[in-house]
Amino acid sequence: MPENLNLVEIASKHVLLQQSRKALKARCPFHKDDTTSLMITPQNNFFKCFGCGAEGGPIEFLMRIENKSRTEIVNGLAKQGFPL
Ligand SMILES: [Zn+2]
């Protein structure tokens, strides 16, 4: 996992993040979420949804939110100058 991809930064462009004790919480953008099922732990650069089971790192988040394959995401990031 590329270190310079910050999941919190990426996620904050798509969802409203709320600070909770150990993690950040948000309404999950991957299913119809009336609560804040999505948890992001900044230390691990990792997200997990307790509603739909989506989980992963920055690449997985982008794949789901942009509905693209891993290759498309990685190529897109490379074009933006991320050394992957
Ligand atoms: Zn979800």
TrEMBL record:
Record-level Gene Ontology MF annotations: DNA binding; DNA-directed RNA polymerase activity; zinc ion binding
Source organism superkingdom: Bacteria
One GO term describing the cellular component: cytoplasm
SMART domains in the record: ZnF_CHCC
Keyword field contains Transit peptide: no
PANTHER family: DNA PRIMASE
Ranges of residues in domain Zinc finger CHC2-type: 24-78
One Pfam family hit: Zn_ribbon_DnaG
Residue ranges crossing the lipid bilayer per the database entry: none
Keywords per UniProt: Metal-binding, Zinc, Zinc-finger
An example Gene Ontology biological process: DNA replication, synthesis of primer
This protein's name: Zinc finger CHC2-type domain-containing protein
